[in-house]
Amino acid sequence: MALITLTSDFGLQDYIAGAVKGQLMQIDPSFQVHDISHQIAPFNYPQAAYVCRNAIWHFPANTYHIILVNMFEQKPENILLACLRGQYIFCADNGLLGMILPEKPEKIIGLPLDKNEIKNTMYCTGQIGRAIKSIESGIPPETMGDPEIKYIQKKDLRPLLGESYIEGQIIFIDKFENVVVNITRDEFEAQRRGRSFRIVFKRNEIIDRISESYADVPQGEKLAIFNSANYLEVAINKGNAAGLFGLQDFTDQSLQHHLFYQTVKVYFE
Question: Which of 77, 100, 128, 254 could form an SS bridge with 250, CB 3.0 to 4.6 Å?
Fold first, then answer.
């Protein structure tokens, strides 16, 4: 029984997420399909990378991860299949794969799409489902496509470093409107080197300590913590930080504009 996860930017308003699950189960009724998220913001590569990167590695080995985000940035000719740490990851050839993976994959195969077919979502996911069934039957993935494929690569969104600061970008806002910044605990401590610090955002909002939980501050007060994925998070205890402070997350288009309401800067002293 193949364990499959789905991540997409479909949302849940219409039929498509359910239709994809039904299609996979038609290909093989034994498939076990589980959602990671269908609420990825359209065209938001940093958000998609954050969600996938911090979910995939918690699944058992030999899980198949189908990532349906910005599938049609360009006319698709292949679906990418990456093999890393016992996980199988399917993704459009749009640059997202390299942002998700923490290291170079052991294998990456381009699964060809039929030039005579209409390459819509259902066709592409059908091809992925049949590839999964083939792998489960013992067919080596590298025999199913091009193991030497040249694929699009985008750089992951990284914080900016200076001698006395680290500047991060907001990559995710959760349902409570807590704000996740692309600064990990390790990056923070390496740059800090034991110094005191000020976390600054929206020009004049300052936090000067890291809390262990939301309850460390009174209700309605702002705080900074490292979340369960070890990323810096700015929040308000029983409040919504993003809405109150007017903070927004980065999109791929945002990279052209250095906007203060999408960044969080830490000064070390």
Answer: 254
Alpha-carbon distance of 34 to 66, in angstroms, equals 10
Q: Is 179 helix (H, G, I), strand (E, B) or coil?
A: strand
Across 55-84, b (16+ Cβ under 10 Å) vs e yields: bbeebeeebbbbbbbbbebeebebbbbbbb
Measured distance CA(65)–CA(57) in Å, rounded: 10
Least confident of 8-22, 53-67, 151-165, 237-251: 237-251
Residues 94 and 74: beta-carbon distance below 8 Å: yes
Which are the contacts of 12, defined by CB distance < 8 A and separation ≥ 6? Answer: 38, 39
pTM score of the predicted model: 0.90
CATH of domain 160-268: 2.40.30.90
Q: Is 119 helix (H, G, I), strand (E, B) or coil?
A: coil
Tokens found for residue 228: 């369960």
Percent composition of the chain: helix, strand, coil (DSSP 3-state, to 5): 25, 30, 45
How far apart are alpha carbons 203 and 195 in whole angstroms? 21
Largest Cα separation within the chain, whole Å, is: 62
State the number of CA atoms in the 13 A half-sphere of 17 facing the CB: 20
Distances (CA, A) of 16 to 59, 125, 164: 24, 11, 48
- What H or E segment, with its residue span, contains residue 226? strand 222-226
**Angstrom distance (rounded) from CA 15 to CA 160:** 41
Q: What is the mean pLDDT of the chain?
A: 92
- Domain 3-143, classified CATH 1.20.1110.10, yes or no: no
Query: What are the residue boundaries of the structural domains of the chain, listed by start?
Result: 3-143, 160-268
